[in-house]
Amino acid sequence: MTRKIAIFDTTLRDGEQSPGASMNSEEKLIITRQLLRLGVDVIEAGFPVSSPGDFKSVQQIAAEADDKAVVCALTRAVEKDIDSAAAALEHCKRPRIHTGIGVSPSHIYEKLRSTPEKILENAVAAVKYAKKYVEDVEFYAEDAGRSDYEYLAKVTEAVIAAGATVVNIPDTTGYSLPDEFGRRIRFLMENVSNIDKATISVHTHNDLGMATALAIAGVQNGAGQVECTINGLGERAGNTAMEEVVMAIKMHGEELDAHTDINTREFIRASRLVSSISGFLVQPNKAIVGANAFAHSSGIHQDGVIKSRNTYEIIDPADVGASQSSIVLSARSGRAALRHRVEQLGYQIEGEELNQLYDAFLDLADKKKEVYDEDLESLIGEHNRNQKAYYTLKSVQISCGQPLIPTATVTLLDNEDREFVACSTGTGPVDALYKAVNEIVDIENELSEFAVQSVTRGIDALGEVTIRVTSGDGEVFSGRGADNDIIVSSAKAYINALNRLISHKEERN
Ligand code: KIV
Ligand code: ZN
Fold first, then answer.
1. H or E segment at 382?
2. Residue 226 C-alpha to ligand 2 middle, in angstroms?
3. pLDDT in tens, the chain (509 residues)
Protein backbone atom coordinates (compact mmCIF):
# COMPACT_ATOMS: atom_id res chain seq x y z
CA MET A 1 0.00 0.00 0.00
CA THR A 2 1.34 3.45 -0.91
CA ARG A 3 1.52 6.36 1.57
CA LYS A 4 -1.68 8.36 2.01
CA ILE A 5 -1.15 12.06 1.28
CA ALA A 6 -3.67 14.27 3.09
CA ILE A 7 -5.29 16.95 0.94
CA PHE A 8 -5.70 20.25 2.76
CA ASP A 9 -7.93 22.64 0.84
CA THR A 10 -7.43 26.36 1.35
CA THR A 11 -9.76 27.72 -1.37
CA LEU A 12 -11.86 29.39 1.31
CA ARG A 13 -8.87 31.04 2.99
CA ASP A 14 -5.79 31.56 0.76
CA GLY A 15 -8.01 31.30 -2.34
CA GLU A 16 -10.35 33.92 -1.01
CA GLN A 17 -7.38 36.24 -0.45
CA SER A 18 -7.07 36.80 -4.23
CA PRO A 19 -8.25 40.33 -4.94
CA GLY A 20 -11.82 40.08 -6.17
CA ALA A 21 -12.41 36.51 -5.02
CA SER A 22 -14.15 37.35 -1.75
CA MET A 23 -17.17 35.12 -1.14
CA ASN A 24 -20.12 35.54 1.16
CA SER A 25 -20.96 32.95 3.80
CA GLU A 26 -23.65 31.28 1.66
CA GLU A 27 -21.20 30.85 -1.24
CA LYS A 28 -18.59 29.42 1.12
CA LEU A 29 -21.10 26.81 2.25
CA ILE A 30 -21.84 25.81 -1.35
CA ILE A 31 -18.11 25.32 -1.92
CA THR A 32 -17.78 23.43 1.37
CA ARG A 33 -20.38 20.91 0.17
CA GLN A 34 -18.40 20.37 -3.01
CA LEU A 35 -15.15 19.95 -1.04
CA LEU A 36 -16.91 17.27 1.00
CA ARG A 37 -18.00 15.52 -2.21
CA LEU A 38 -14.38 15.60 -3.32
CA GLY A 39 -13.45 14.01 0.01
CA VAL A 40 -10.75 16.48 1.10
CA ASP A 41 -9.12 15.67 4.42
CA VAL A 42 -8.88 19.23 5.76
CA ILE A 43 -10.83 22.41 4.96
CA GLU A 44 -9.16 25.67 5.89
CA ALA A 45 -12.29 27.69 6.58
CA GLY A 46 -10.91 31.16 7.26
CA PHE A 47 -9.10 33.56 9.53
CA PRO A 48 -11.65 34.20 12.34
CA VAL A 49 -10.01 37.18 13.99
CA SER A 50 -9.97 39.11 10.70
CA SER A 51 -13.72 39.96 10.72
CA PRO A 52 -17.03 38.94 12.33
CA GLY A 53 -18.05 37.63 8.89
CA ASP A 54 -15.05 35.30 8.73
CA PHE A 55 -15.65 34.18 12.30
CA LYS A 56 -19.26 33.26 11.58
CA SER A 57 -18.33 31.58 8.36
CA VAL A 58 -15.82 29.29 10.11
CA GLN A 59 -18.60 28.28 12.52
CA GLN A 60 -21.00 27.53 9.67
CA ILE A 61 -18.42 25.54 7.70
CA ALA A 62 -17.58 23.50 10.80
CA ALA A 63 -21.29 22.68 11.25
CA GLU A 64 -21.63 21.73 7.58
CA ALA A 65 -18.52 19.52 7.59
CA ASP A 66 -19.66 17.74 10.76
CA ASP A 67 -17.22 14.81 11.15
CA LYS A 68 -16.50 14.41 7.43
CA ALA A 69 -13.36 16.58 7.39
CA VAL A 70 -11.02 18.39 9.73
CA VAL A 71 -11.91 22.09 9.80
CA CYS A 72 -9.04 24.43 10.30
CA ALA A 73 -8.84 28.12 11.28
CA LEU A 74 -5.82 30.33 10.60
CA THR A 75 -4.16 32.57 13.19
CA ARG A 76 -0.99 34.59 13.61
CA ALA A 77 1.19 33.56 16.56
CA VAL A 78 -0.83 35.93 18.72
CA GLU A 79 -3.04 34.96 21.67
CA LYS A 80 -6.07 37.00 20.62
CA ASP A 81 -6.04 35.32 17.18
CA ILE A 82 -5.83 31.89 18.77
CA ASP A 83 -8.65 32.73 21.22
CA SER A 84 -10.80 33.78 18.29
CA ALA A 85 -10.02 30.63 16.26
CA ALA A 86 -10.76 28.44 19.27
CA ALA A 87 -14.09 30.20 19.83
CA ALA A 88 -15.06 29.82 16.16
CA LEU A 89 -14.18 26.12 16.31
CA GLU A 90 -15.85 25.52 19.68
CA HIS A 91 -18.54 23.17 18.34
CA CYS A 92 -16.44 21.72 15.54
CA LYS A 93 -16.25 17.91 15.55
CA ARG A 94 -12.67 17.81 14.18
CA PRO A 95 -11.04 21.18 14.89
CA ARG A 96 -7.53 22.27 13.95
CA ILE A 97 -5.81 25.56 14.76
CA HIS A 98 -3.28 26.67 12.13
CA THR A 99 -0.88 29.11 13.76
CA GLY A 100 2.52 30.36 12.69
CA ILE A 101 5.09 33.05 12.13
CA GLY A 102 7.71 34.13 9.58
CA VAL A 103 11.06 32.32 9.71
CA SER A 104 13.07 33.77 6.80
CA PRO A 105 15.62 36.55 7.40
CA SER A 106 13.36 38.98 5.57
CA HIS A 107 10.39 38.13 7.79
CA ILE A 108 12.39 37.97 11.03
CA TYR A 109 14.37 41.19 10.63
CA GLU A 110 12.32 43.33 8.25
CA LYS A 111 8.68 42.41 8.75
CA LEU A 112 8.71 41.40 12.42
CA ARG A 113 11.80 43.47 13.47
CA SER A 114 12.81 40.66 15.77
CA THR A 115 15.56 38.07 16.23
CA PRO A 116 15.66 34.33 15.39
CA GLU A 117 15.70 33.47 19.13
CA LYS A 118 12.60 35.55 19.89
CA ILE A 119 10.75 34.13 16.88
CA LEU A 120 11.53 30.61 18.07
CA GLU A 121 10.14 31.44 21.52
CA ASN A 122 7.08 33.01 19.93
CA ALA A 123 6.45 29.96 17.77
CA VAL A 124 6.66 27.55 20.70
CA ALA A 125 4.46 29.76 22.88
CA ALA A 126 1.80 29.97 20.14
CA VAL A 127 1.67 26.20 19.68
CA LYS A 128 1.45 25.63 23.45
CA TYR A 129 -1.30 28.22 23.71
CA ALA A 130 -3.31 26.67 20.86
CA LYS A 131 -2.79 23.24 22.42
CA LYS A 132 -4.81 24.38 25.46
CA TYR A 133 -7.84 24.51 23.19
CA VAL A 134 -7.40 21.71 20.64
CA GLU A 135 -5.34 18.57 20.21
CA ASP A 136 -4.70 19.11 16.50
CA VAL A 137 -2.37 22.11 16.00
CA GLU A 138 -0.66 22.90 12.71
CA PHE A 139 2.28 25.29 12.74
CA TYR A 140 3.23 27.26 9.59
CA ALA A 141 6.79 28.46 9.19
CA GLU A 142 5.97 31.39 6.93
CA ASP A 143 8.42 32.01 4.06
CA ALA A 144 10.16 28.73 4.88
CA GLY A 145 11.15 28.56 1.20
CA ARG A 146 13.70 31.35 1.80
CA SER A 147 14.77 30.36 5.30
CA ASP A 148 18.03 28.94 6.61
CA TYR A 149 17.94 25.09 6.64
CA GLU A 150 19.40 24.70 10.14
CA TYR A 151 17.14 27.35 11.64
CA LEU A 152 14.06 25.86 9.97
CA ALA A 153 14.97 22.44 11.39
CA LYS A 154 15.40 23.97 14.86
CA VAL A 155 11.98 25.66 14.70
CA THR A 156 10.36 22.48 13.36
CA GLU A 157 11.83 20.38 16.18
CA ALA A 158 10.79 22.91 18.84
CA VAL A 159 7.18 23.24 17.66
CA ILE A 160 6.78 19.47 17.41
CA ALA A 161 8.13 19.19 20.98
CA ALA A 162 5.53 21.82 21.95
CA GLY A 163 2.75 19.65 20.51
CA ALA A 164 2.36 20.55 16.81
CA THR A 165 0.77 17.64 14.97
CA VAL A 166 1.49 19.08 11.50
CA VAL A 167 4.31 21.43 10.44
CA ASN A 168 3.57 23.41 7.32
CA ILE A 169 6.58 24.40 5.18
CA PRO A 170 5.25 27.13 2.88
CA ASP A 171 7.07 28.56 -0.08
CA THR A 172 5.15 31.75 0.62
CA THR A 173 6.63 33.79 -2.22
CA GLY A 174 6.75 31.04 -4.87
CA TYR A 175 10.52 31.54 -5.09
CA SER A 176 11.93 28.01 -4.82
CA LEU A 177 13.04 25.56 -7.48
CA PRO A 178 11.50 22.08 -7.20
CA ASP A 179 14.81 20.30 -6.69
CA GLU A 180 15.91 22.67 -3.93
CA PHE A 181 12.50 22.62 -2.22
CA GLY A 182 12.59 18.82 -2.25
CA ARG A 183 16.06 18.90 -0.62
CA ARG A 184 14.70 21.22 2.07
CA ILE A 185 11.93 18.76 2.96
CA ARG A 186 14.42 15.85 2.90
CA PHE A 187 16.73 17.83 5.22
CA LEU A 188 13.90 18.19 7.74
CA MET A 189 12.98 14.51 7.46
CA GLU A 190 16.60 13.57 8.19
CA ASN A 191 17.62 16.19 10.72
CA VAL A 192 14.62 16.80 12.97
CA SER A 193 14.90 14.25 15.76
CA ASN A 194 11.15 14.07 16.56
CA ILE A 195 9.92 14.24 12.93
CA ASP A 196 8.05 10.93 13.38
CA LYS A 197 5.65 12.69 15.79
CA ALA A 198 4.25 15.07 13.17
CA THR A 199 3.30 15.32 9.51
CA ILE A 200 5.19 17.66 7.21
CA SER A 201 2.87 19.71 5.00
CA VAL A 202 3.79 21.66 1.86
CA HIS A 203 2.06 24.90 0.87
CA THR A 204 3.39 26.35 -2.36
CA HIS A 205 2.63 29.39 -4.49
CA ASN A 206 2.74 29.76 -8.25
CA ASP A 207 4.76 32.95 -8.77
CA LEU A 208 7.18 31.13 -11.08
CA GLY A 209 4.53 28.75 -12.40
CA MET A 210 5.97 25.87 -10.37
CA ALA A 211 3.57 25.44 -7.46
CA THR A 212 2.52 21.91 -8.48
CA ALA A 213 6.11 20.85 -9.21
CA LEU A 214 7.15 22.13 -5.77
CA ALA A 215 4.34 20.27 -4.03
CA ILE A 216 5.24 17.04 -5.82
CA ALA A 217 8.91 17.53 -4.90
CA GLY A 218 7.71 17.84 -1.30
CA VAL A 219 5.76 14.58 -1.55
CA GLN A 220 8.76 12.79 -3.11
CA ASN A 221 10.87 13.83 -0.16
CA GLY A 222 8.57 12.94 2.70
CA ALA A 223 5.71 15.45 2.97
CA GLY A 224 2.47 13.79 4.07
CA GLN A 225 0.08 16.68 3.40
CA VAL A 226 -0.36 19.05 0.45
CA GLU A 227 -2.14 22.41 0.77
CA CYS A 228 -3.93 23.49 -2.37
CA THR A 229 -6.95 25.22 -3.88
CA ILE A 230 -9.46 24.49 -6.62
CA ASN A 231 -8.30 26.03 -9.94
CA GLY A 232 -5.11 27.21 -8.19
CA LEU A 233 -6.93 30.23 -6.77
CA GLY A 234 -4.86 32.13 -4.19
CA GLU A 235 -2.69 35.10 -3.33
CA ARG A 236 -0.98 36.73 -6.34
CA ALA A 237 -0.30 33.98 -8.92
CA GLY A 238 -2.20 31.50 -6.77
CA ASN A 239 -1.59 28.29 -4.85
CA THR A 240 -1.00 24.74 -6.01
CA ALA A 241 -4.09 23.58 -7.93
CA MET A 242 -5.67 20.60 -6.19
CA GLU A 243 -6.74 18.97 -9.45
CA GLU A 244 -3.15 19.09 -10.75
CA VAL A 245 -1.39 17.76 -7.69
CA VAL A 246 -3.96 15.02 -7.07
CA MET A 247 -3.91 13.85 -10.71
CA ALA A 248 -0.09 13.88 -10.74
CA ILE A 249 -0.12 11.68 -7.64
CA LYS A 250 -2.75 9.44 -9.22
CA MET A 251 -0.78 9.04 -12.47
CA HIS A 252 2.54 8.42 -10.71
CA GLY A 253 1.34 6.73 -7.51
CA GLU A 254 3.83 3.84 -7.63
CA GLU A 255 6.83 6.04 -8.36
CA LEU A 256 5.88 8.53 -5.67
CA ASP A 257 4.76 5.80 -3.28
CA ALA A 258 1.69 7.94 -2.67
CA HIS A 259 -2.07 8.12 -3.06
CA THR A 260 -4.88 10.44 -2.00
CA ASP A 261 -8.51 9.68 -1.14
CA ILE A 262 -9.91 12.34 -3.46
CA ASN A 263 -12.88 11.52 -5.67
CA THR A 264 -11.33 12.92 -8.85
CA ARG A 265 -14.61 12.64 -10.80
CA GLU A 266 -15.77 15.74 -8.92
CA PHE A 267 -12.98 17.97 -10.28
CA ILE A 268 -14.76 19.53 -13.26
CA ARG A 269 -17.81 20.33 -11.19
CA ALA A 270 -15.64 21.79 -8.41
CA SER A 271 -13.75 23.88 -10.94
CA ARG A 272 -16.90 25.33 -12.53
CA LEU A 273 -18.43 26.04 -9.15
CA VAL A 274 -15.37 27.87 -7.80
CA SER A 275 -14.96 29.76 -11.05
CA SER A 276 -18.60 30.80 -11.02
CA ILE A 277 -18.57 31.89 -7.37
CA SER A 278 -15.17 33.59 -7.36
CA GLY A 279 -15.58 35.21 -10.77
CA PHE A 280 -12.15 33.86 -11.81
CA LEU A 281 -12.44 32.36 -15.26
CA VAL A 282 -10.52 29.17 -15.96
CA GLN A 283 -8.12 29.54 -18.88
CA PRO A 284 -9.07 27.13 -21.71
CA ASN A 285 -5.64 25.46 -21.66
CA LYS A 286 -5.58 24.99 -17.87
CA ALA A 287 -4.32 21.53 -16.91
CA ILE A 288 -7.03 18.99 -15.96
CA VAL A 289 -10.05 21.32 -15.87
CA GLY A 290 -9.57 23.73 -18.82
CA ALA A 291 -12.11 23.53 -21.66
CA ASN A 292 -9.34 22.36 -24.03
CA ALA A 293 -7.66 19.96 -21.61
CA PHE A 294 -9.00 17.00 -23.60
CA ALA A 295 -9.51 18.62 -27.01
CA HIS A 296 -7.34 17.33 -29.85
CA SER A 297 -7.31 19.60 -32.86
CA SER A 298 -4.37 18.63 -35.05
CA GLY A 299 -5.11 15.93 -37.61
CA ILE A 300 -2.20 13.77 -36.49
CA HIS A 301 -3.34 13.85 -32.86
CA GLN A 302 -6.98 13.15 -33.77
CA ASP A 303 -5.90 10.20 -35.87
CA GLY A 304 -3.78 8.87 -33.01
CA VAL A 305 -6.51 9.24 -30.40
CA ILE A 306 -9.08 7.53 -32.65
CA LYS A 307 -6.72 4.55 -33.00
CA SER A 308 -5.85 4.47 -29.32
CA ARG A 309 -6.75 7.08 -26.72
CA ASN A 310 -3.49 6.54 -24.96
CA THR A 311 -1.38 7.88 -27.87
CA TYR A 312 -2.02 11.50 -26.89
CA GLU A 313 -4.23 11.34 -23.79
CA ILE A 314 -2.76 10.41 -20.42
CA ILE A 315 -5.97 10.91 -18.46
CA ASP A 316 -9.39 9.46 -19.18
CA PRO A 317 -11.65 12.59 -19.23
CA ALA A 318 -14.29 10.62 -17.30
CA ASP A 319 -11.79 10.31 -14.40
CA VAL A 320 -12.03 14.04 -13.74
CA GLY A 321 -15.76 14.28 -14.43
CA ALA A 322 -15.53 15.70 -17.96
CA SER A 323 -18.78 14.44 -19.49
CA GLN A 324 -19.35 14.83 -23.21
CA SER A 325 -21.83 17.60 -22.60
CA SER A 326 -25.04 15.75 -23.44
CA ILE A 327 -28.38 17.29 -24.39
CA VAL A 328 -30.45 16.55 -21.34
CA LEU A 329 -33.43 18.82 -21.14
CA SER A 330 -35.75 20.79 -23.39
CA ALA A 331 -38.85 22.98 -23.07
CA ARG A 332 -40.91 19.78 -22.75
CA SER A 333 -39.02 18.59 -19.66
CA GLY A 334 -40.99 18.74 -16.43
CA ARG A 335 -40.03 19.89 -12.97
CA ALA A 336 -39.15 16.34 -11.89
CA ALA A 337 -36.72 15.93 -14.77
CA LEU A 338 -35.08 19.25 -13.94
CA ARG A 339 -34.81 18.30 -10.29
CA HIS A 340 -33.31 14.92 -11.18
CA ARG A 341 -30.67 16.47 -13.44
CA VAL A 342 -29.87 19.18 -10.90
CA GLU A 343 -29.34 16.48 -8.28
CA GLN A 344 -27.10 14.55 -10.65
CA LEU A 345 -25.05 17.69 -11.03
CA GLY A 346 -24.63 17.68 -7.26
CA TYR A 347 -26.94 20.49 -6.17
CA GLN A 348 -29.79 20.35 -3.68
CA ILE A 349 -32.59 22.69 -4.70
CA GLU A 350 -36.08 22.17 -3.33
CA GLY A 351 -39.48 23.82 -2.83
CA GLU A 352 -39.89 27.45 -3.81
CA GLU A 353 -36.27 27.67 -4.96
CA LEU A 354 -36.87 24.79 -7.37
CA ASN A 355 -39.97 26.57 -8.70
CA GLN A 356 -37.93 29.70 -9.37
CA LEU A 357 -35.21 27.68 -11.07
CA TYR A 358 -37.81 25.89 -13.19
CA ASP A 359 -39.25 29.20 -14.38
CA ALA A 360 -35.78 30.38 -15.35
CA PHE A 361 -35.15 27.04 -17.08
CA LEU A 362 -38.39 27.28 -19.11
CA ASP A 363 -37.49 30.80 -20.08
CA LEU A 364 -34.13 29.60 -21.35
CA ALA A 365 -35.54 26.48 -23.02
CA ASP A 366 -37.96 28.68 -24.94
CA LYS A 367 -35.06 30.61 -26.45
CA LYS A 368 -32.66 27.72 -26.77
CA LYS A 369 -33.79 24.29 -27.92
CA GLU A 370 -30.96 22.29 -26.36
CA VAL A 371 -30.22 22.85 -22.70
CA TYR A 372 -26.80 21.46 -21.75
CA ASP A 373 -25.38 20.75 -18.31
CA GLU A 374 -23.24 23.89 -18.61
CA ASP A 375 -26.42 25.93 -19.21
CA LEU A 376 -28.01 24.43 -16.13
CA GLU A 377 -24.92 25.13 -14.04
CA SER A 378 -24.96 28.68 -15.26
CA LEU A 379 -28.67 29.02 -14.37
CA ILE A 380 -28.01 27.58 -10.91
CA GLY A 381 -25.12 30.05 -10.49
CA GLU A 382 -27.48 32.85 -11.47
CA HIS A 383 -30.10 31.55 -9.06
CA ASN A 384 -27.57 31.35 -6.19
CA ARG A 385 -26.36 34.86 -6.90
CA ASN A 386 -29.91 36.16 -6.60
CA GLN A 387 -30.45 34.59 -3.19
CA LYS A 388 -30.14 37.29 -0.54
CA ALA A 389 -29.23 39.85 -3.21
CA TYR A 390 -29.74 43.48 -2.25
CA TYR A 391 -30.69 44.41 -5.82
CA THR A 392 -32.01 42.35 -8.72
CA LEU A 393 -32.60 43.34 -12.32
CA LYS A 394 -36.25 43.75 -13.33
CA SER A 395 -35.74 45.14 -16.81
CA VAL A 396 -33.26 46.84 -19.07
CA GLN A 397 -33.78 48.66 -22.32
CA ILE A 398 -31.02 49.98 -24.54
CA SER A 399 -31.00 52.08 -27.66
CA CYS A 400 -27.74 52.35 -29.50
CA GLY A 401 -26.25 52.17 -32.97
CA GLN A 402 -24.80 54.53 -35.53
CA PRO A 403 -25.42 57.54 -35.16
CA LEU A 404 -27.51 57.18 -31.95
CA ILE A 405 -26.31 58.23 -28.51
CA PRO A 406 -26.25 55.02 -26.44
CA THR A 407 -29.02 55.30 -23.85
CA ALA A 408 -30.05 52.82 -21.15
CA THR A 409 -33.16 52.61 -18.98
CA VAL A 410 -32.88 50.23 -16.04
CA THR A 411 -35.39 49.02 -13.47
CA LEU A 412 -34.05 47.37 -10.32
CA LEU A 413 -35.86 45.81 -7.36
CA ASP A 414 -34.38 45.98 -3.89
CA ASN A 415 -34.73 43.23 -1.28
CA GLU A 416 -38.01 44.75 -0.07
CA ASP A 417 -39.41 44.61 -3.61
CA ARG A 418 -39.29 48.37 -4.11
CA GLU A 419 -38.83 49.45 -7.70
CA PHE A 420 -36.21 51.98 -8.87
CA VAL A 421 -35.91 53.31 -12.40
CA ALA A 422 -33.01 55.28 -13.90
CA CYS A 423 -31.94 56.36 -17.34
CA SER A 424 -28.53 57.42 -18.61
CA THR A 425 -26.49 57.97 -21.74
CA GLY A 426 -22.89 56.76 -22.17
CA THR A 427 -20.03 56.22 -24.57
CA GLY A 428 -21.42 52.76 -25.40
CA PRO A 429 -24.36 50.57 -24.33
CA VAL A 430 -22.55 49.03 -21.34
CA ASP A 431 -21.28 52.41 -20.16
CA ALA A 432 -24.82 53.84 -20.38
CA LEU A 433 -26.20 50.80 -18.56
CA TYR A 434 -23.65 50.96 -15.72
CA LYS A 435 -24.19 54.69 -15.29
CA ALA A 436 -27.94 54.12 -14.98
CA VAL A 437 -27.36 51.39 -12.36
CA ASN A 438 -25.02 53.74 -10.47
CA GLU A 439 -27.77 56.31 -10.25
CA ILE A 440 -29.81 53.78 -8.28
CA VAL A 441 -27.08 51.99 -6.30
CA ASP A 442 -25.19 54.95 -4.99
CA ILE A 443 -21.89 53.32 -3.99
CA GLU A 444 -18.42 54.42 -5.09
CA ASN A 445 -16.82 51.93 -7.51
CA GLU A 446 -14.85 51.69 -10.70
CA LEU A 447 -15.09 49.02 -13.38
CA SER A 448 -11.64 47.46 -13.82
CA GLU A 449 -12.28 44.36 -15.96
CA PHE A 450 -14.97 43.17 -18.32
CA ALA A 451 -14.99 39.83 -20.15
CA VAL A 452 -17.65 37.95 -22.07
CA GLN A 453 -17.66 34.31 -23.13
CA SER A 454 -20.24 31.83 -24.31
CA VAL A 455 -21.28 29.02 -21.98
CA THR A 456 -21.76 26.46 -24.75
CA ARG A 457 -21.52 26.46 -28.54
CA GLY A 458 -23.93 27.97 -31.09
CA ILE A 459 -25.51 31.32 -31.84
CA ASP A 460 -28.21 30.74 -29.22
CA ALA A 461 -25.67 30.00 -26.44
CA LEU A 462 -25.84 31.77 -23.11
CA GLY A 463 -23.36 34.64 -22.92
CA GLU A 464 -21.64 34.91 -19.57
CA VAL A 465 -20.17 38.24 -18.51
CA THR A 466 -17.52 38.40 -15.79
CA ILE A 467 -16.46 41.74 -14.40
CA ARG A 468 -14.36 43.20 -11.62
CA VAL A 469 -15.04 46.47 -9.82
CA THR A 470 -12.82 48.31 -7.35
CA SER A 471 -14.59 49.91 -4.40
CA GLY A 472 -13.81 53.39 -3.05
CA ASP A 473 -11.49 51.84 -0.44
CA GLY A 474 -9.53 49.88 -3.05
CA GLU A 475 -11.06 46.42 -2.58
CA VAL A 476 -11.83 44.36 -5.67
CA PHE A 477 -15.13 42.51 -6.22
CA SER A 478 -16.07 40.26 -9.07
CA GLY A 479 -19.50 39.77 -10.60
CA ARG A 480 -21.03 37.35 -13.04
CA GLY A 481 -24.21 37.24 -15.08
CA ALA A 482 -25.55 34.94 -17.77
CA ASP A 483 -28.29 35.40 -20.36
CA ASN A 484 -28.91 34.92 -24.07
CA ASP A 485 -28.66 38.67 -24.39
CA ILE A 486 -25.21 39.92 -23.40
CA ILE A 487 -26.54 43.34 -22.44
CA VAL A 488 -28.73 41.60 -19.86
CA SER A 489 -25.71 39.49 -18.76
CA SER A 490 -23.70 42.70 -18.41
CA ALA A 491 -26.38 44.24 -16.22
CA LYS A 492 -26.64 41.11 -14.07
CA ALA A 493 -22.86 40.88 -13.68
CA TYR A 494 -22.62 44.49 -12.53
CA ILE A 495 -25.49 44.15 -10.07
CA ASN A 496 -23.90 40.94 -8.76
CA ALA A 497 -20.57 42.73 -8.15
CA LEU A 498 -22.34 45.61 -6.37
CA ASN A 499 -24.34 43.14 -4.24
CA ARG A 500 -21.05 41.52 -3.20
CA LEU A 501 -19.55 44.88 -2.38
CA ILE A 502 -22.56 45.79 -0.19
CA SER A 503 -22.63 42.36 1.43
CA HIS A 504 -18.89 42.52 2.19
CA LYS A 505 -19.28 45.92 3.83
CA GLU A 506 -22.20 44.62 5.92
CA GLU A 507 -20.43 41.40 6.96
CA ARG A 508 -17.35 43.40 7.93
CA ASN A 509 -19.40 45.75 10.06
O1 KIV B 1 1.70 31.32 1.94
C2 KIV B 1 1.75 31.22 3.18
O3 KIV B 1 2.80 31.23 3.81
C4 KIV B 1 0.48 31.11 3.89
C5 KIV B 1 0.54 30.81 5.35
C6 KIV B 1 -0.36 31.71 6.12
C7 KIV B 1 0.25 29.37 5.59
O8 KIV B 1 -0.57 31.19 3.29
ZN1 ZN C 1 -0.25 30.92 1.10
1. helix 373-386
2. 12
3. 999 999 999 999 999 998 888 888 888 999 999 999 999 999 999 999 999 989 999 999 999 999 999 999 999 999 999 999 999 999 999 999 999 999 999 999 999 999 999 999 999 999 999 999 999 999 999 999 999 999 999 999 999 999 999 999 999 999 999 999 999 999 999 999 999 999 999 999 999 999 999 999 999 999 999 999 999 999 999 999 999 999 999 999 999 999 999 999 999 999 989 998 888 989 989 999 998 888 766 667 667 777 777 787 889 989 999 865 555 688 888 888 888 888 877 788 889 989 999 999 998 888 887 788 888 888 888 887 777 789 999 999 999 988 899 999 999 999 999 999 999 999 999 999 999 999 999 999 999 899 998 887 777 788 899 999 999 888 889 898 989 899 999 999 999 999 989 988 887 76
Ligand 2 centroid vs 150 CA: distance in angstroms?
Answer: 23
Q: Considering only CA atoms, which of 436, 345, 426 is closest in space to residue 384?
A: 345
Domain with CATH 3.20.20.70 in the chain: 3-278
Please check whether the domain covering 3-278 is classified as CATH 2.60.40.1730.
no
Q: Which ligand is nearest to the CA of 172?
A: 1
DSSP, collapsed to helix, strand or coil, labels residue 63 as helix
Separation CA 199–CA 207 (nearest Å)? 25
Mutate which of 13, 172, 228 for ligand 1? The one with the most ligand atoms within 8 Å of its CB, which is: 172
Q: CB under 8 Å to 24, separation ≥6 — which residues?
A: 53, 388, 500, 503, 504, 507
The CATH code of the domain at 389-508 is 3.30.160.270
- pTM, full prediction: 0.88
Task: Specify the domain boundaries for CATH 3.30.160.270 within the chain.
Answer: 389-508
Q: Which residues line ligand 1 (CB under 6 A)?
A: 14, 140, 142, 168, 170, 172, 203, 205
Nearest atom in ligand 1 to 10's CA? 8
Q: In 21-68, which ranges are E strands?
A: 42-46
